[in-house]
Amino acid sequence: MSNTPFGFGLPPEEPENGDEGKKKDQQSGGGQGPANPFGFGSPGAGGAGADNPLAAMFGSLNPADLGAAFQQLGQMLSYEGGPVNWDMAKQIARQTVSQGTPDGTKDASVNPGERSAVEEAVRLADLWLDDVTSLPSGAGSAVAWSRAEWVEATLPVWKELVDPVAERVGAAMGDVLPEEMQAMAGPLIGMMRSMGGAMFGTQIGQAVGVLAGEVVGSTDVGLPLGPAGKAALLPLNIEAFGKDLGVPKEEVRLYLALREAAHQRLFAHVPWLRSHLFGAVEGYARGIKVDTAKLEDVVGQFDPQNPEELQQALQQGMFQPEDTPEQKTALARLETALALVEGWVDAVVHAAAKPRLASADALRETLRRRRATGGPAEQTFATLIGLELRPRRLRDASRLWASLTDARGVDGRDGLWAHPDMLPTASDLDDPDGFVHREQLDFSELDKMLGEAAGGGSTEKPDLKKDEGDKGDDAE
C-alpha cells in the first residue's frame, strides 16, 4: 500500500517545449508520465514545470505572455471554490492532451468511419455477452471519443471521486492554528487554501490528461467514469494498444468493446455498486491523518512571496493514511470490490470471446500483463488514494467467477450481485474453491430471495433476465 495519497513524490519527467523536450525525454528515458500521474515534483527534478503550477506558467514564457501569466496567477490565488480548482484541472488536462503522448502521437478528431466501427463493435459485443451473462445490456448508445472528449466527459466523475480526499487534506490547512489565531491569520490561510486548490487542480489535470492518452474506454480504471448508459471507446488509443500485437485491429476493437459493454452491464444493473465503490473512496478519505506539527511549522514560516514552499511541504509526506483498523478496512473493501468487478468482466468477456476470436487468449494475457506492470487503473488508485491493486487479486477473482459459472451456472453466478453482503470477501479470494463449494450456502434460498425481489421488494437487486429458460446457444 502506498503511503501518500495524491502521489506526493517524484514526478514523471515531461517534455517542456516542443521537439527539444521530446529529444531530451528520449535521451534520458523519461517522459513516462503514467508512472506517477498525480505526483508533485521536487524542485529541480525533471521538468521544472511538470507538476508545479507556477513553473508551468512561467517556465518558458516570452515577455508577450507575461501579462496573461500574471492574470492566471491572480485567478489561482483568488480561487475560493472547493478543495480542487477544477477550472485549472480542466485547463491542465487539455494542455496535457494537446502535447501528445511520449511516443509522439497527437490527439485527433474521430472520423465517421471510426465512429461506425465502434458502434458496430459494441452492438456485436452486446449480442455475444447475451450468451454468457444474465445481466441485460447496459449500453443505450455507443460513442467514439477523442482524448479531449474523454477528458470533458469524465471530469464530472473525477470531481465526485477526488473531492472527498482533497477536502480532508485542504481542511487541515486551516485547522492547525488555535481558534483565536485563525482570524489574524485569515488571509494567509486563505492563500494557502487557494494554493492547495491550485496544486490539487494541477495534479488532477495532469493525471487526467496522461490517462486520456492511455485508456481505451470509459471504464478502464474499474469505475464508471463516463455518462450512464454510454459505452465509449477511443479509436486512437485502441490503435496504439493493438500496435505490434500481431492481431487484426478488428479483433482488438471487438475484444475491448466486449470489456466496455460488460462493465456497462454491471454498473447499469447492479444499482448499489457505484455508491459502494465511491463510498469506499470517501471512507478512505475520512482516515487521512495530517502531520499537524509539520503543518504548524509551515504555517508559521510560510512566505507569501515564495508559495513553492507549500509545495515542498506537501511533497515531504505531510499527509499520510492512518494505519488504523478502520483505514485498513476501507482500503480492503475498495480493493476487493474493484477486484470482483474486474474479475467478473475478465471471466465473462473470456467466455464470450474464446469460442469466437482466435486472439482471445493473447488479448487476455496482454491485458493481464498491462495490469501487472501498472496500467491506468493501477496508476490511478496507487497515486490517488494510496491503493495498490494487486494483480493476484484480479486473477483470483476471475478464477472464482469462472468456477462459480461451472458450479452454479450463469444465473447462480450473477445472482451474487443482488446485495453486497452476498459477494465473496477478501478471504474468499484467498480460497476461491472454498467459496464456490461452500455447502452452507443454500442456493435455493438465493433463488427465493431473487424471486421475492423480482416480485417488487428490494431496490438493491441486480436487473437479471429471469424466466427465460436456458439461454445456451439460442440466446440473442
Automatic annotation (TrEMBL):
Protein name listed in UniProt: Hydrolase
KW Transmembrane helix (keyword) present: no
InterPro entries in the cross-refs: Zinicin_2, Zinicin_2_N
Keywords on record: Hydrolase
Gene3D superfamilies, alphabetized: Zincin-like metallopeptidase, N-terminal domain
Keyword field contains Hydrolase: yes
Ranges of Basic and acidic residues composition bias in the record: 460-476
NCBIfam families: putative hydrolase (TIGR03624)
Residue segments, region Disordered: 1-47, 96-115, 446-476
MF annotations from Gene Ontology: hydrolase activity
Pfam families hit by this protein: Zincin_2 (PF10103)
